[in-house]
Design a protein that fits this description.
The complex is a heterodimer of chains A (1083) and B (495). Chain A is built from 42 helices and 24 strands. Chain A has a seven-stranded mixed beta sheet. In chain A, α5 links the parallel β4 and β5. The longest helix of chain A is centred in the C-terminal third of the chain and has 25 residues, at 902-926. Among the domains of chain B are: 243-371, DNA polymerase, Y-family, little finger domain (Dna Ligase, domain 1, 2-Layer Sandwich); 414-494, no CATH class. Chain B has helices at residues 12-20, 46-50, 59-65, 76-90, 114-118, 121-134, 147-156, 166-174, 185-193, 199-204, 207-214, 216-226, 255-275, 308-322, 343-346, 357-371, and strands spanning 4-8, 29-32, 41-44, 70-73, 97-99, 106-110, 140-144, 160-162, 243-252, 278-289, 293-299, 329-340, 377-381, 391-395, 414-422, 444-455, 462-471, 476-482, 487-494. Chain B has a five-stranded mixed beta sheet with strand order 5-6-1-7-8. In chain B, strands 15-19-18-17-16 form a five-stranded antiparallel beta sheet, with no helix packed on it. A four-stranded antiparallel beta sheet of chain B has the order 9-12-10-11. In chain B, α11 runs antiparallel to α12 (216-226), α13 packs antiparallel against α14 and α14 (308-322) runs parallel beside α16. The longest helix of chain B has 21 residues, at 255-275. Chain B is extended and about 105 Å long. Classes of the chains: A alpha/beta (1083), B alpha+beta (495). Chain A binds chain B through residues 157-159, 161-162, 193-194, 197, 208-209, 212-215, 217-220, 423, 426-428, 430-432, 435, 452, 458-459, 462, 887, 891, 903, 906-907, 910-911, 914-915, 936-937, 939, 941-942, 1037, 1040-1042, and chain B through 35-37, 51-52, 59-60, 63-68, 190, 193-195, 204-206, 208-209, 212-213, 382-385, 448, 450-455, 457-459, 466.
């Protein structure tokens, strides 16, 4: 018997060729009682190994192969908790001082952190086998580690090893170091050698045939069965026995990790529990403008008791502190996810939805049975998220706060590309092959054939097999979008911290799954563009209308906003702007906030693949009676008319209808979340269906519920999450309805975000009566602005924004209280049913001039601040922009105020800038002032026509304030009897239509069996086109490559929603080729 | 007035590619700058255009539009060779031919006075077109009066165009669209944005403004187009190869006589090279035998040279190695590969090191001359695990002063056999011990190993278990058991 003490998993990136679980499983299978996981310079894989080891009863020693600053290595094993902390600290030192992906520790650091660690000194890169005798290092190590220092004799049946081993043994004897036996384990079974070779080649960027000695000479790096290991060291049984001795000395397990959440600064004499209680009830009073309802108080007491019992108070206080920081800095933020189920979170201002009124399930967030730390995700306006992240670092210190990592793993495409390169397959073939594959699908021989590769060829067989084997292997580290680990003790005592590729970011070596497994708290700070847009919008409204609005003060019931939503007039509205959502809105006809919650959730793969959408719509419209598959399910499904739409409902359904215990239900929730990786959801299939049918529920319903569970695994919304998002959706819709210019301007300034291009947003704004003014160097700023000069008055909506005044009942009753963002702290007062408001035109910002840098804008701003520009030459002279920027500005028409003709302006800037460039270089040489430019004859250029003007706008700014590219072509289109979008929308069901428009969206959802959805746009609106897969295959080239497209097909009008079912596609022959603002294409 | 013609072979590199791959003609084809997904498409055929594949796209983008897009690179050297070859062919039709420097596939020809020889200029141009067609190339030809006019029109008109008056040429060339000319894409785009679409528009721009904005090249084009600059034809003079030939009245079988003949030829050959300021890098000596046909010997001196004595010595060594000529030689040809002479080659200022590597190289050249060009090789170490793959023999071009590493202790040397020697299979029971070779060496008394080398699974799997075996007589054998073949081999010896 022996213990493998030097094992590297695939978390030794691009070196180890087995998952940690596989190594542990192999140990269990071979009868090896303990295994040491020693990935190089990290403990990335220990949690996975720990979980598997716990399951299979194999002992796990935590260690690492650390790299020294002289490039040699040492293997360190954690003997105790102190040893683990020292190991993590050492790796942190090494990682923090090195480039990303590297680590170098110093010998003195190793010796200084010797406590609780065992050292194995051996292996190819060890100083103990090098030619020079490491006499000083040996004495230092011996002094520091004493009897915890071992020499590691390794054997891999290589001819050069006996000489090295003899050297190692001579030195070990000289320094009095006992020798242990070992092999460098890189994979759990010999068959993985091929994967290891491939990974090595990827690491070195070479092909297998050119790898030479970079790959190992044989397959002797597999985990050896005890008898084989004993035979390998038959001449030194004592060294084999020493592996057991070492393992016996290592008693540390991850289960022994004790984690304390950092405690917040508390007022004197207050416990964190008491402080949380006070803050919560203070918050409740603010929320409700007085004492909370008895129901709310009961809920708060219940939650606070549980939080107290589980000692989670510190975590809530941290979140409260972050939210307070955001408020103080005027940063919009809002909790999302399961936190919205908590009344405490609501009262602390972390979330914005009243869970008591909404009837949300607190247990989905926190429960005694689950004993899992709560998970609060905080959405922060994305432009200012970094401020919050740096605040957290500053408040807790780099040692006590670090971001959670994210392991980038091989997916089918990356696996094909990298394995194929290593095998020497032509890159063009790999490119074609990877394009034919889905992101998560496997590679099948048919795919190879489709890509023109012969699956029978040996190399393609290798490709098929090896690309499959490295799927899900971690490749490198990246940062989790916003997860933080905070600790009362330094985080580097728990897990090493390393530098991320982003400046000023540090990450730990565990991902969110590891934290969840170990029960550690994660603080999630996520960026959300919509919040940033709202912030910008509220600022614009306040600045130009003098009205102070916030998320908390906007009215909860507003007929005109709901009318707008029902008409699917939702371009730019958070969450309900996509083509699919727009198609759903006229059918669902939302009239309440809860309808919006449903709307946000229903257009998701979960309800769609589960076949829940149409039953819900029929029941809602009264075409189908609301029935429940079993009387016991009525309380679960009542809110959604007997149809499960939310994740919570599915869980409760499993508990009620299939008698799932809380433990089983929790397992179901985890499996739903992880099904893509593990496929574990299938094990619930029979159990669920059988139990439901035995209760008298129809098999068909049971199967549908299971399909939906599977779909939810893919992507489904919990109700609380949908409620949070619906709130933002409502706020953006309200702003669009009542302040369309502020809405459009803020949306343009928050780009990139959302579903549509700037051109579509601008055209939509114009259709809503907003005047858009072009970029102009004498007026524009970097961002788009609302101009005040000649604002006009216009009617917005059929009632003023505050007329129906009641704030949302589930939001807040704190009159006038600015929960999120306020400058004046008051709400506007309105009078009269028809609210007339000044309309401000939008001046496009220079950020929309393609290729113009912000630095260039700053030069323009500085020069303009001094005095106005008098001429093109003056502009060039004073801004000193480069020729490219000047040409782009001239081409975009931004110099029109200085020269009305764009071509002439282009000619002039080219002359001035090149003269300036030449003169400045010669002036630099001579140290003199620039000479004056000489005047030259200005050629007469042909004037741009309307079509050219718009196309130039699109080419340089991806939009045109002057018109839609199809507007000048309309007469020609009409001549060819091609209707515009408005006329198409007015046509009848079944009518045949020929239509031409610009493609703004192509979508091929995985749930649609190959059907492609497209949106075409003209100057009057959109036409939604459905392309069946056979039509798509026939016209794929045109559809994929042409922006101005003609389509012939049949209209389908249903519930006020019009779709054009395409038969054929063609290129409209209208002479000019209109430019496009770009298409957003999705899979 | 002198007549001038311009011949344009549109998308010349693509035409060459299609000539090379005739089977691609019915498929979408592109010439790319590199055969990678990110390679840029430079030229496409009409079928590819039908799939909306356009020059400037990435190869991967083209493939996504047409799965059967065929593409290849067209090396510049190959294009240059084709241009030289075409130039030679065109010189059959006129003595003066000038290939365009920056636009492959464009030639200017002197057409003056040829109507008398060919009946008419259209006839002459038609004959050129037919000749090129016969070799699988398409061209457009314009016969006119000026360099720019004929160029612009041959780029825009298909077939043959013969202009009778300079004014017609000027008027027609004004109407040519600029995108037909080989302008820099950036310049073409900028002019397009300014609404300058035709040569006429271009000519109307102020000359000084052009130079300031677009640089001297475009300014030169502008002057050419507007007739301010008139460049006469600058025909390429053909460079005759450095070659000497002598026919013999009687077949010669005597090597010494042959050496005299070669010496006579070598003198003028080297003078020709010296006149061109070139030195000889390789000498080819060709013999036409009376019955056996032609035979060529190549000789490379230690360094490029014009030293006749050194070269003759190499020729003599090579001929001596032949010992006896197999047949009578009726003609001798000597020709040279040469290169521009450098100061180092002349060697005026070179310091002579203590070890004369030049002398060593001359000695090696003599060895090569006597034993063949592949006679001098050295072992170059390679990064591979299999012993026979861990080095390769490579030809020695020249020697350098050796710098051996100091060895701290004598090491054993493994001698590898050129081919592993198969050994008899090892008996299951070996009463007298294992005797892998012969009785004389006695049985194996000690074995070290196995040391495993396995790999090559992606091509041809290898699994060898190496051992060092010491025989009773003290010989150290280096042998292995080949697992896939299930037998023992002797890889070499240890000394």
């Amino acid at each position: 018997m022996y213990v493998p003490l030097w094992c590297k998993s695939n978390f030794s990136f691009l070196e180890g060729a087995s998952h940690p679980e596989e190594l542990v499983e192999a140990c269990a299978h071979l009868g090896i009682e303990t295994l040491a996981l020693t990935d190089h310079d990290g403990v990335y894989g220990v949690v996975e190994a720990h979980v598997k080891a716990r399951e299979s009863g194999v002992g796990l020693i935590i260690g690492s192969e650390v790299t020294l600053d002289d490039d040699s290595t040492l293997i360190l094993l954690a003997k105790s908790r102190e040893g683990h902390a020292n190991l993590c600290r050492l790796i942190t030192f090494g990682r923090r001082r090195s480039e990303k992906g590297e680590s170098r520790v110093r010998w003195d650091e190793v010796c200084a952190h010797a406590a609780g660690l065992i050292v194995l000194w051996g292996g190819d890169r060890s100083l103990l086998v090098s030619e020079a005798d490491p006499v000083f290092v040996a004495h230092d190590l011996k002094d520091a580690f004493g009897d915890r220092l071992y020499a590691l004799a390794t054997r891999h049946r290589r001819a050069e090893e006996p000489k090295r081993e003899a050297r190692l043994r001579r030195r070990a004897e000289r320094y009095g170091i006992p020798v242990a036996a070992g092999t460098e384990v890189l994979y759990h079974k010999p068959a993985r050698r091929e994967v290891q070779d491939v990974l090595t080649c990827i690491r070195h960027g070479v092909t297998l045939s050119g790898a030479g000695r970079r790959i190992k000479p044989n397959a002797e790096h597999a985990l050896k069965p005890p008898h084989a290991f004993t035979a390998l060291f038959h001449d030194d049984p004592a060294a084999v026995a020493r592996t057991l001795e070492i393992a016996g000395r290592c008693s540390f397990s991850l289960a022994a990790l004790r984690y304390r959440y950092p405690s917040e600064k508390l007022p004197d004499g207050t416990t964190s529990s008491g402080w949380l209680r006070k803050l919560t009830f203070d918050g409740a009073r603010e929320r409700y403008g007085g004492p909370a309802s008895p129901e709310m108080i009961r809920q708060l007491e219940k939650e606070l008791d549980l939080i107290d019992e589980l000692d989670y108070g510190g975590y809530f206080l941290t979140m409260w502190e972050i939210v307070r920081f955001c408020r103080e800095r005027g940063i919009l933020c809002q909790g999302r996810g399961s936190a919205a189920n908590s009344a405490v979170c609501y009262c602390l201002g972390i979330t914005a939805v009243d869970p008591v009124r909404m009837g949300l399930l607190f247990e989905r967030f926190l429960s005694r049975e689950r004993a899992e730390p709560p998970d609060i995700d905080l959405d922060i306006e994305h432009e200012r998220r970094e401020e919050v992240i740096q605040h957290v670092y500053e408040k807790y210190g780099r040692s006590h706060a670090a971001m959670v990592c994210n392991f980038i793993r091989y997916r089918s495409r990356s696996a094909i590309r990298e394995v194929g390169k290593v095998l020497g397959v032509a890159e063009t073939a790999l490119d074609r092959l990877s394009k034919l594959m889905s992101h998560h699908g496997g590679l099948a021989p048919e795919t190879l054939m489709h890509a023109g590769l012969d699956p029978e060829q040996e190399v393609h067989g290798h490709l098929l097999r090896l690309a499959g084997e490295i799927l899900d292997f971690p490749r490198h580290l990246s940062i989790h979008p916003g997860g933080f680990l905070l600790g009362h003790e330094p985080v580097s005592d728990l897990v090493p911290i390393e530098n991320a590729s982003m400046p000023d970011r540090t990450v730990i070596q565990w991902d969110k799954d590891c934290l969840e497994e170990l029960g550690l708290f994660k603080v999630d700070l996520l960026g959300l563009g919509a919040l940033h847009q709202l912030h910008l919008g509220f600022d614009l409204i306040e600045e130009h209308h003098g009205e102070s609005w916030s998320m908390a003060t906007i009215p909860g019931k507003d007929g005109s906003t709901f009318d707008m939503i029902c008409k699917a007039d939702t371009v730019g509205v958070f969450q309900i702007e996509s083509r699919a959502q727009m198609a759903m809105l006229p059918r669902l006809k939302p009239r309440t906030y809860y309808d919006l919650v449903v709307e946000v959730s229903i257009v998701r793969p979960g309800p769609i693949t589960g076949g829940m959408v149409h039953p819900y719509l029929r029941r809602r419209s009264g075409d189908e009676p609301v029935v429940y598959p079993h009387p016991s399910l009525e309380p679960v499904l009542k809110k959604t008319l007997g149809v499960p739409l939310f994740q919570e409902q599915v869980i409760r359904l499993a508990m009620v209808a299939a008698d799932y215990t809380p433990g089983e239900a929790d397992q179901l929730r985890r499996d739903m979340a992880a099904w893509r990786r593990s496929g574990r959801i299938e094990r619930h299939h029979q159990r669920l269906v059988d139990r439901m049918t035995s209760k008298g529920i129809a098999t068909e319903f049971a199967e549908r519920v299971f399909e939906q569970i599977r779909g939810f695994g893919e992507y489904g919304f919990p109700e609380s999450h949908a409620a949070s998002f619906a709130l933002i959706a409502w706020a953006t819709a309200w702003m669009k309805c009542h302040y369309p210019e502020a809405f459009a301007c803020s949306l343009l300034n928050a780009q990139p975000m959302g579903f549509y291009s700037a051109a579509t947003i601008i055209d939509d704004a114009k259709r809503h009566g907003v005047e858009i003014r072009p970029v102009d160097v004498t007026r524009s700023h970097w961002n788009c602005t609302l101009e005040t000069g000649d604002a006009r008055t216009a009617k917005t909506g059929d009632s003023h924004p505050g007329k129906t005044g009641d704030r949302y009942p589930f939001l807040t009753t704190a009159a006038g209280k600015r929960v999120t963002h306020s400058k004046k702290g008051t709400c506007p007062q309105f009078s009269g049913p028809q609210f007339l408001r000044r309309r401000f035109p939008i001046r496009m910002g220079l950020r929309y001039v393609k290729g113009l840098s912000k630095r260039s804008w700053e030069r323009i701003e500085t020069a303009r601040g001094e005095r106005s520009f008098s001429a093109v030459e003056d502009f060039v002279e004073r801004t000193r922009l480069d020729e490219g920027s000047l040409t782009r500005l001239a081409e975009a028409g931004a110099l029109s105020a200085l020269d009305g003709d764009r071509r002439s302006a282009m000619w002039r800037v080219a002359s001035t800038s090149s003269a300036q460039g030449a003169a400045s270089s010669s002036a630099r040489k001579r140290g003199r002032r620039l000479p004056m430019t000489t005047r030259e004859r200005l050629p007469l250029f042909a004037a741009l026509d309307d079509s050219e003007t718009i196309n130039w706008d699109y080419r340089t700014t991806r939009h045109s304030p002057r018109g839609h590219p199809l507007a000048p072509l309309r007469p020609q289109l009409e001549k060819r009897r091609l209707p515009d979008a408005t006329r198409v929308a007015a046509m009848k069901d079944g009518e045949r239509v020929r239509y031409a428009g610009l493609v703004i969206c192509r979508q091929r959802p995985g749930t649609a069996s190959g059907v492609v959805f497209m949106t075409l746009e003209d100057e009057t609106g959109f036409v939604n086109v459905v392309v069946w897969s056979r039509v798509f295959e026939k016209h794929a080239v045109l559809i994929k490559t042409t922006s101005f497209l003609g389509v012939t097909g049949k209209l389908q009008v249903q519930d006020g929603v019009t779709h054009l079912i395409a038969d054929t596609f063609w290129i409209p022959r209208v002479g000019a080729r209109p430019e496009s603002g770009g298409s957003h294409d999705f899979h | 007035m002198d007549r001038m013609a311009c011949i344009d072979l549109p998308a010349f590199p693509l035409q060459l590619l299609l000539r090379r791959h005739g089977e691609w003609r019915d498929r979408p084809v592109a010439v790319v700058d590199s055969d990678r997904p990110q390679g840029k498409i430079l030229w496409v055929n009409e079928r590819a255009r039908g799939y909306r594949i356009l020059p400037g796209m990435r190869y991967a983008a083209g493939l996504s539009l047409a799965g059967d897009l065929h593409a290849a690179e067209m090396p510049a050297a190959e294009i240059d060779r084709a241009i030289s070859s075409l130039g030679r062919r065109l010189r059959c039709f006129t003595p003066h031919v000038e290939p365009a420097r920056d636009d492959p596939g464009v030639f200017w020809l002197d057409a003056s006075g040829l109507e008398r020889l060919y009946g008419s200029l259209p006839n002459w141009a038609g004959l050129i077109r037919s000749e090129l067609r016969r070799s699988g190339l398409e061209c457009n030809t314009t016969v006119g009066f000026s360099r720019f006019g004929t160029y612009a029109l041959s780029k825009s008109k298909r077939g043959v165009l013969v202009l009778d008056r300079p004014a017609d040429e000027r008027a027609a060339s004004r109407r040519v669209f600029l995108d037909r000319l080989a302008l820099e894409p950036g310049v073409r785009e900028t002019l397009g944005k300014l609404g300058i679409r035709t040569v006429g528009d271009f000519m109307d721009l102020p000359s000084e403004g052009i130079e300031k904005r677009f640089g001297s090249e475009i300014h030169r084009l502008h002057r050419l187009a507007s007739g301010v600059l008139r460049l006469p034809l600058q025909p390429e003079a053909p460079v005759p190869p450095a070659l000497q030939r002598l026919g013999l009245d009687h077949p010669v079988t005597n090597v010494a006589r042959l050496m005299v003949v070669i010496e006579r030829l070598l003198g003028p050959l080297l003078r020709t090279l010296a006149d061109r300021n070139h030195v000889l890098s390789k000498l080819h000596v060709g013999f036409r035998f009376e019955r056996l046909g032609d035979h060529i010997e190549g000789l490379r001196p230690a360094a490029p040279t014009l030293d006749a004595a050194q070269l003759l010595e190499l020729v003599r060594l090579r001929l001596d190695a032949l010992r006896k000529l197999p047949d009578g030689v009726v003609e001798v040809v000597v020709y040279a590969e040469s290169m521009a002479a450098t100061r180092e080659q002349i060697g005026l200022f070179a310091r002579r090191p203590r070890r004369d590597t030049a002398a060593a190289n001359q000695a090696l050249a003599r060895v090569r001359a006597e034993l063949g060009n592949d006679a001098v090789v050295r072992a170059r170490l390679r990064e591979a695990h299999l012993p026979e793959a861990s080095f390769r023999w490579e030809a020695v071009e020249g020697v350098a002063v050796p710098r051996p590493r100091e060895a701290d202790q004598p090491t054993l040397v493994r001698r590898i056999y050129a081919r592993p020697v198969p050994l008899p299979s090892r008996a299951r029971h070996e009463p007298d011990g294992w005797m892998p070779r012969s009785l004389e060496q006695g049985p194996v008394v000690r074995v070290l190993g196995p040391y495993v080398v396995s790999g090559g699974w992606w091509r041809k799997p290898v699994h060898r278990e190496y051992h060092f075996a010491e025989t009773q007589k003290g010989e150290l054998l280096w042998l292995y058991y080949d697992r896939p073949r299930r037998r023992w081999y002797l890889q070499g010896r240890v000394e």
